[in-house]
Amino acid sequence: MHKNLRRAAMAAAFCVAHPLHAGAQPAPAAPTAPLQACFVYVSPVGQAGWTYQHEQGRQAMQQALGAAVKSRFVEAVPEGADSERVMRDMARDGCGLIFATSFGYLEPALRVAAEFPGVKFEHAGGYKTAANLNTYNARWYEGRWLAGWLAGKQSKSGVAGYVAGFPVPEVVQGINAFTQGMRAANPKAEVKVVWLNAWFDPTREREAALSLVAQGADVLTNHSGSPAVPQAAEDKGVLLLAYQSDMRRFAPKSQLASVVQHWGPYYTQVAKAAIAGQWKPQPVWGGLKDGGVQLAAVSEALPAAVRSELERKRADIVAGRLLPFAAPLVDNAGRVRLDKGALPDAQIAQMDWFVQGVTGSVPAR
User: Fold this and answer.
1) 240 and 250 Cβ atoms separated by less than 8 Å
2) What's the chain's Rg over C-alpha atoms?
3) How confident is the model at residue 364, as a pLDDT?
4) Are 50 and 134 in contact (CB under 8 A)?
């Protein structure tokens, strides 16, 4: 991997033409330069978490495509002006495909994309596209529903603590789906939320987790970027439904399962399309069915009956028989949000309210 954005891009091979004479062989065709695929990460790669999973995806893409692609990344890039500068430098330095892997990178990516129409951009979790900018995401809420159901089956207090980053729709979806799943197992269950207004802040993540345990939560989950919440769960002896990565190395006794992200197949597919000249902005929203989302590392200590029922529910979500946001949906102020059917994608993608069972509110952004 190469991190120095000032390093010049690989020069294309060329050959000098000479007059042909009888018996002369034509000059060999110039080799095709590899696609330069560049990644911008909002936090350090570390050993687990959001950025770690994207880095695993980059490595899987590199391994799958070999010499056809040359990839590099820059880590710990704040959202805003810094990310815009990094992406602009990447575009100038020969990156033909840029993956912007944090929600707050959207507007900077749109500005840089407008300046470099020949560069292809992929933005994680965004809601706007351009001629050369696509968005991609996954239905993490499907895995969250399963994690919540498992929490509801195993929690003794009926109270879960949720450490949340920013109040963007993806995070709200996860909180609501987790709560829906938990209350499917225990109708009286309660989910308490602490907002960080940060994606990666290990100290505050741990403090938030400990405060939730002090409020009666005997199971923790999170939407934040470090292993701090799993470590807090292990230290306090409470249960954990991990997120982003398998966190057993940090919480070997506490973890019941983890909602794990797998980006490798998607990154490989996108890079192949770019190399073949077939890339186009076509928003993607994957899920359990295509394997981008998985409820993984399910604890073998769980009762066999619970494991079997969990697998049936996973199969039901994949088959479309179980919809995490099916009616009746009531918000935590008692208002009926849906009395029949299921929420369509457009409304899920804009979710800014909490379901019944969540303590707290969604702050305005």
Assistant:
1) no
2) 23
3) 84
4) no
Look at residue 158 in the predicted model and tell me its pLDDT: 98
- Cα(312)–Cα(146) distance, integer angstroms: 10
Mean pLDDT, 10 residues at a time, the chain of 365 residues: 37 30 46 91 96 98 98 97 98 98 97 98 96 97 98 98 96 98 98 97 98 98 97 98 97 98 97 98 95 96 98 98 98 97 96 97 87
Residue with tokens 């089956």: 153
Write phi, then psi, for 183 (nearest 5 degrees): -75, -15
Residues 247, 181 contacting (CB under 8 angstroms): no
Give the sign of the dihedral formed by CA 109, CA 200, CA 250, CA 301: negative
3-state secondary structure the chain: CCCCCCCCCCCCCCCCCCCCCCCCCCCCCCCCCCEEEEEECCCCCCCCCHHHHHHHHHHHHHHHHHHHEEEEEECCCCCCHHHHHHHHHHHHCCCCEEEECCHHHHHHHHHHHHHCCCCEEEEECCCCCECCEEEEEECHHHHHHHHHHHHHHHCCCCEEEEEECCCCHHHHHHHHHHHHHHHHHCCCCEEEEEECCCCCCHHHHHHHHHHHHHCCCCEEEEECCCCHHHHHHHHHCCEEEEEECCCCCCCCCCEEEEEEECCHHHHHHHHHHHHCCCCCCCCEEECCCCCCEEEECCCCCCCHHHHHHHHHHHHHHHHCCCCCCECCEEECCCCEEECCCECCHHHHCCCCCCECCEECCCCCC
Predicted pLDDT of residue 167: 96
| Residue showing tokens 């379901």 | 355
Look at residues 136, 116, 134 and name the one whose alpha carbon lies nearest to residue 281: 134
**Nearest in space to 290 (alpha carbons), one of 325, 262, 320:** 262
- Evaluate whether 126 touches 110 at the Cβ level (below 8 Å): no
Q: What is the pLDDT of residue 32?
A: 78
Contact indicator for 47, 249 with CB cutoff of 8 Å = yes
Distant-in-sequence, close-in-space partners of 318: CB < 8 Å, separation ≥ 6: 288, 289
